[in-house]
Amino acid sequence: MKGLATIYKLMLFIISVDYVHSHGCIPVICEGNIDNSLRRCPDYDNTCGSYGGKRFDERYIKGVDILCQPSSAVYAPFDGVITYQRPFRDNSCIDHGLRITGEGQWIGYIAVISYIEPIRYGGRVHRGDIIGHSLTLSCLPRPDSHFEPHILFQLYLQGQPVNPTYHLKECMCTGQVCESNVGNKLASVPYQNTRGFGKGWTLKCHAVQELTNSGEMASRLPDIYAPIDGHFLGRFRPMPLADGVEDYQCTNNGIFILGAGQWTGKTVGLKFIINFTAHIYNAKFSIEPGKQTIRQGQKIGQRLDCPSESFSNNIFIELRYKGRFANFTNLILGEDCKLPPLH
């Protein structure tokens, strides 16, 4: 049975999908709050719903208060395992919550959601599953205080508190790019110049091992997913002409995406300036060529098979802002989804 369980887990990992979730961005947590709006700071009673703000019991909590009407459905922020948790350990009416230990893209993370009545107290959940309903805050120490209804959301990485604000809202983290690299793990130092490509990130992108109908393991090329929302233009050759002759070597292929949605451009004067563009090198598109709209996480291509070249098991991704290189390492790795200052 143990062997069958291992094979089953492996099969779950290798099944090719047409879409993956954004790496680092958390979906809707409370029913009716589609953009994960936070409680104001200061609130009507001078408490604060922002990260590190003073709460009703005078504590400064490293978490955020997500607006949530009483009895609203509360959803899992990511795939993981839930356990019941009492945030205050005082048996008050709001002393209920859940702890979600992350899996997949969120390995190493723990989310704690408080002021909710769980509908289950253990087991595995998937991103977006209903895990409980928000509680009324009528039993707080100052019941006459006037504040916006909310739940408390805290996030930890390797046991250390993390500000979840930009994981919840205005999230600018990219999606997973290579099928076999869930966490966008780097193959070399971050944000470096690479000869023939440009300035960006070399990501690991090894072949995928999958179980055949005959019960044997076989490898195939990994799929490539769109890192941003955008307009897909198809293939381009990143390396320039050499002595008037175009270089057709295997790795001289790439995918070009013009940003759309929150990654789009704007009109300045008579010019339309694209804010973001993404180039993926050592990859070839697998969808229909020509301009079309794609969404972040959509399958758009495959890694190239270039066994004679040193770059064969990696891909290179480059993000530009208004045509200029910019260091978006935190957005690629999903560590901090706040857009860095850009000029």
TrEMBL record:
Annotated TM spans: none
Annotated signal peptide: 1-22
A Pfam family this chain is assigned to: Peptidase_M23
Matches recorded under Gene3D superfamilies: Glucose Permease (Domain IIA)
Domain of life: Eukaryota
M23ase beta-sheet core domain location: 61-164
UniProt similarity note: Belongs to the LECT2/MIM-1 family.
Protein name: Leukocyte cell-derived chemotaxin-2
